[in-house]
Amino acid sequence: MEQKIKILLVEDEKMLAEILSDTLTDRKFDITLAYDGEQALKLARNNNYEVIVTDVMMPKIDGFTLVKRLRGEGCMTPILFLTALSTTEDVVRGFEAGGNDFLKKPFAIDELIVRIKALAGRAKGGESEDVSIYDIGNFKFSPKESQLTINGLHISLAARESAVLLRLCRNIEQTVESSTILRELWGDDTFFNLRSLNVYISRLRHHLAADPNVEIINIRGIGYKLKIGG
């Protein structure tokens, strides 16, 4: 019998929360509901979830603050923001808080399920067949730990940042199509998801700037290439 994926669903709109809970339960997910950020924080601290799905605009503690606190306490559970907020600034803020994915309301339930399964799959070690450490110029990249190291400095990556970088490392000096990355990590290659990918690429470029010989090149209209050397 297939084991249910354990989800913490944080949504202050009670009707929507119950509809999502009932629908996901019917699809064989194990759902725990929280109706505000304070309740969610307590549940996340005292239970092990495979994925946390949270709204942003909530009473007591908003979603961005909730996720930032959890990450500060060492929580590594993949987190999906489910929200009506959709500007580039909102997306960037969500990723900087420690979120792994961002799904805009209104949404299709099948898309939500794809996103949850993708996050849960990676949390269970879906990348375990990969090289343990990649050399990227002067950097060492550990996909398992989602960490870059250079000159003794450790840089922690969000799970989605690490997953994007891993795909570039598998194909150093080769172009990786954006559509391929999006389908593998987001479930589809819509324009909104492409914007999210671009945010992650910008963040990775910022991390990698410590070595001027490492560069992520944009192959316009196609994808990206990780280039090492002059």
Q: What does this 3D model show about the protein?
A:
By secondary structure, this protein is an alpha/beta fold. It has 2 domains: 5-123, 3-Layer(aba) Sandwich (Rossmann fold); 134-228, Arc Repressor Mutant, subunit A. It contains 8 helices and 12 strands. The strands form 3 sheets. It has a 5-stranded parallel sheet, with helices on both faces. Strands 6-7-8-9 form a 4-stranded antiparallel sheet, with no helix packed on it. The chain has a 3-stranded antiparallel sheet with strand order 10-12-11. The longest helix is centred in the last third of the chain and has 18 residues, at 191-208. It is globular and about 55 Å long. Residues 125-129 have low confidence and may be disordered.
Order of helices and strands: EHEHEHEHEHEEEEHEHHEE
Q: How much helicity do the residues have?
A: 40-55%
Main β-sheet, spatial strand arrangement: 2-1-3-4-5
Q: Uncertain segments of ≥5 residues (pLDDT<50)?
A: 125-129
Largest sheet: 5 strands, parallel
Produce the secondary structure layout:
Elements: E1 5-10, H1 14-26, E2 29-34, H2 37-46, E3 51-54, H3 63-72, E4 79-83, H4 88-97, E5 101-104, H5 109-123, E6 134-136, E7 139-142, E8 147-150, E9 153-156, H6 159-169, E10 175-177, H7 178-185, H8 191-208, E11 214-219, E12 223-228
Parallel strand pairs: 1-2, 1-3, 3-4, 4-5
Antiparallel strand pairs: 6-7, 7-8, 8-9, 10-12, 11-12
Keywords:
4-stranded antiparallel beta sheet, 2 domains, 24% strand, 5-stranded parallel beta sheet, alpha/beta, Rossmann fold
